[in-house]
């Protein structure tokens, strides 16, 4: 018998003297899914010497196994064809594949795509449910990616129409992922997902900063504010609540990055499997985007062809560059000072012998005087206190200043007012406080004719900036002797802080007049609970406030209600103003001069989305000549400035004040 016998000569094989079949060099394992059964009575066919033309069963049999005979109906079957094996399980090598196998694979399909994995486990048992889950997860992944691409960073722009746009980034991303090989596609998809996650987190930070501080998040400067936020949470919610919030935020951030990366990877794999359809859809989407962009097509007032993510990235890059440039330019500005070389005897000579107080009322903004919810109560207090001052022999004038900050970061307002420089961010604050620029309070210290002190109930740790502000002594929250409870963020009621100031400094016999900087904190958010005014002789060490604090409202009951939070904010301002003016009436004298103002407007939830940054400022004095010096300022008589009062930038006050009271510039 010839060794070259093919499948057409198999029926003529000598079945009486079977030969031991010669095994090929490499034999693939038997296909366990084959449905044909071997006939034990049949003799195995002799294989060809080169393995070509042997039956499929023989080719698939392991070494030493019996080879099943070819059935009669297989006589006309083409060589190498295995009809018994299912198509999904058949795997052929190049040597074994039929001549037309490659042609069928390429010309018989509409598109070239990666084969989906074979279902196993519960997916094989429940194909309908598996398809539903797959479609749902894929749809959610697509929605998540689209949300990240279209998400605005401003609360005012959160509208349904914004999320019904066509983002160019999605079209470009799909085109890139489709042409990449598998490994490179996976890496690209993961990086793209992480980038989308980072943009989403930054957009969320922008939303929070716009809500609280009236500006977006600065990726260069604002990381240090997270520690202040944590401290604020501890003061408002307790340590346990603050820890819970921090953990929740961390989990949220990790989830955003993980889900975004997984979503892009899943969509990338889908594009690869359905490359033909995906290519057509991408071309159509790209054409529609270009046409809509060129024609300026809008949907509900929003541009349909969106490129918000690319614009947001460019905006952040521009802001980083502007921040770095601003730092360098401001360092030069801070070195210039109109009063840098003014001799001590030429600084504020017209206030010699006066006890001067510079007081900041936390979050005391223009909205407190003009908003219809808060204004009635606050305006009534200002009118009443103006009358009390007049009765006690004092007079007052008031105007408006535009703060360098909004909603928070009070130290930026304080430093702007006192330094005469526009301190609008943390970098500027660090620069100016590290230098020797003359401050308003420092001018009094330089003369040598005043004792200068600071009352800082909001400072709870060492505060090296005290030397920059020219303060001989600083009393922080640890040194004011308070034994009562905290009122949310505020460490102590304003009335107690003023009482401690009277006990520690103002009420003592002195050989010099006193210049004081006082920061009042009872009007700090979340405006619950709020202290109430009590007789001055009952203040004591503050223990009396324990019951008052328990009777007050809880932050959670106030802060999240837009009406209640305005009402309570107004009440807190009323309390702070009342405490300050009552102190002047009770403990002031003919040499008392009080300058008080707000450091910034309250957050947007209270002041309104379109609120300006104006704060009221007033000067109170018993000596009429003190107010005569500022007649040309055209301020309003009394504690409530009206609409006709001038509005100045807060950084202009230092120079105006120094020159009004006789200071001579020496740059």
From TrEMBL:
Q: List keywords of the entry alphabetically.
A: Membrane, Transmembrane, Transmembrane helix
Q: Does the keyword Cytoplasm apply?
A: no
The Acidic residues compositionally biased stretches are 71-84
Here the segments flagged for biased composition (Low complexity) are 41-70
Give yes or no: UniProt keyword Ion transport. no
Spans of biased composition, class Basic and acidic residues?
A: 11-22
The residues forming the signal peptide are none
**Location of region: Disordered:** 1-125
Q: Where are the transmembrane segments?
A: 132-150, 162-180, 187-205, 242-262, 283-306
Name used for this protein in its record: Sulfatase
Output the lineage of the source organism.
Bacteria, Bacillati, Actinomycetota, Actinomycetes, Kitasatosporales
């Amino acid at each position: 018998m010839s060794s070259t016998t093919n499948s057409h000569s198999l029926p003529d094989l000598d079945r009486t003297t079977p030969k031991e079949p010669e095994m090929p060099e490499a034999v693939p394992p038997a296909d366990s899914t084959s449905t044909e059964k071997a006939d034990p009575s049949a003799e195995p066919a002799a294989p060809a010497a080169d393995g070509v033309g042997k039956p499929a069963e023989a080719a698939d049999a392991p070494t030493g196994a019996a080879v099943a005979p070819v059935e009669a109906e297989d006589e006309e079957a083409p060589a190498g064809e295995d009809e018994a094996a299912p198509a999904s399980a058949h795997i052929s090598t190049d040597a074994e594949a039929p001549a037309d196998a490659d042609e069928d694979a390429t010309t018989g399909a509409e598109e070239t795509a990666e084969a989906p994995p074979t279902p196993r486990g519960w997916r094989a048992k429940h194909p309908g449910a598996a398809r539903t889950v797959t479609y749902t997860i894929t749809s959610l992944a697509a929605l998540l990616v689209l949300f990240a691409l279209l998400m605005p960073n401003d609360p005012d722009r959160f509208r349904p129409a914004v999320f019904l746009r066509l983002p160019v980034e999605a079209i470009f991303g799909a085109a890139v992922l489709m042409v990449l090989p598998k490994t490179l596609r996976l890496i690209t998809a993961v990086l793209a997902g992480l980038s989308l996650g980072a943009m989403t987190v930054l957009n969320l930070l922008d939303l929070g900063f716009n809500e609280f501080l009236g500006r977006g998040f600065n990726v260069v400067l604002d990381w240090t504010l997270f520690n202040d936020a944590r401290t604020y949470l501890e003061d408002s919610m307790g340590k346990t609540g603050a820890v819970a919030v921090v953990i929740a935020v961390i989990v949220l951030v990790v989830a955003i990055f993980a889900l975004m990366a997984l979503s892009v990877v899943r969509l990338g794999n889908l594009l690869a499997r359905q490359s033909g359809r995906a290519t057509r859809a991408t071309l159509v989407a790209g054409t529609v985007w270009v046409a809509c962009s060129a024609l300026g097509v809008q949907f509900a007032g929003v541009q349909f062809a969106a490129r918000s993510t690319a614009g947001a990235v460019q905006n952040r890059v521009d802001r980083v560059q502007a921040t770095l440039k601003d730092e360098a330019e401001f360092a030069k500005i801070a070195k210039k000072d109109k009063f840098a070389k003014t001799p001590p005897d030429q600084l504020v000579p017209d206030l010699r012998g006066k006890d001067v107080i510079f007081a900041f009322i936390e979050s005391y903004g223009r909205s407190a005087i003009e908003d219809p919810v808060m204004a009635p109560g606050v305006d009534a207090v200002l009118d009443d206190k103006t009358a009390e001052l007049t009765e006690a022999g004092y007079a007052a004038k008031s105007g408006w200043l535009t703060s360098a900050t909004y909603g928070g970061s009070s130290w930026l307002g304080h430093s702007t007012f006192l330094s005469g420089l526009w301190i609008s961010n943390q970098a500027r604050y660090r620069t100016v406080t590290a230098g020797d620029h003359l401050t308003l309070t420092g001018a009094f210290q330089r003369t040598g004719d005043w004792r200068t002190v600071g009352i800082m109930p909001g400072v709870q740790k060492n505060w090296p900036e005290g030397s920059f502000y020219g303060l001989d002594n600083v009393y922080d929250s640890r040194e004011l002797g308070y034994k009562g409870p905290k009122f949310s963020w505020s460490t102590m009621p304003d009335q107690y802080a003023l009482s401690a100031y009277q006990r520690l400094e103002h009420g003592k016999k002195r050989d010099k007049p006193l210049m004081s900087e006082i920061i009042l904190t009872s009007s700090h958010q979340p405006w619950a609970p709020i202290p109430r005014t009590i007789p001055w002789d009952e203040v004591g060490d503050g223990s009396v406030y324990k019951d008052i604090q328990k009777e007050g409202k809880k932050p959670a009951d106030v802060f999240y209600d837009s009406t209640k939070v305005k009402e309570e904010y107004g009440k807190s301002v009323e309390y702070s103003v009342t405490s300050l003016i009552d102190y002047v009436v009770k403990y002031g004298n003919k040499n008392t001069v009080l300058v008080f103002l707000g450091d910034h407007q309250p957050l947007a939830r209270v002041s309104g989305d379109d609120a300006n940054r104006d704060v009221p400022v007033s000067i109170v004095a018993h000596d009429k000549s003190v107010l005569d010096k500022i007649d040309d300022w055209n301020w309003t008589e009394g504690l409530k400035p009206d609409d006709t009062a001038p509005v100045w930038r807060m950084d202009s006050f230092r120079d105006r004040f120094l020159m009004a009271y006789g200071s001579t510039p020496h740059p």
